[in-house]
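Tokens for Putative histone deacetylase 6. Go.
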Amino acid sequence: MANKASSSSVPLKEDEVLSLYLYGSESGWVEARTSCDHMASLSSDLAHIPTPDTPCNRCHHPDENWLCLCCKDVLCSRFVNKHMLEHYQQRNHCLALSYSDLSVWCFSCDAYLDAQVILPLRPVYETAYILKFSEPPPFRTVEQLHLGDNQAEGSSSGN
């Protein structure tokens, strides 16, 4: 759940690289996947989620908490007491949304996911954003998404 750039990573296969949407990787941003095979594990009711200021269900720590997108438990990050990581290891609930920056992480894919591109994630991302900022998120347009794809293709071809 940490910034992928700060953790060791396994080299990606060519087909995995093609499935990534690049978020300014030259400036140190992380790469978010535009697909994930684990969407079937999403909770069926992500329209009703705990608020972003909810403390960890186990240690009650108020910061760096994640929402399990499979069962809606709120648990702290690996930088606090590792309760979300333990939850994944014990229950195999692999999808989580960070209440700090609203990023979505898949433990099984070991990757961030683009919640604006992966349609099943958009509603929970929008709900969390509204709960955190009291306004709807500024979703990227189709044109911006295609521009990003073109930039990703250009960076992978050396342009």
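Residues 32-133 form a domain with the Herpes Virus-1 fold (CATH 3.30.40.10).
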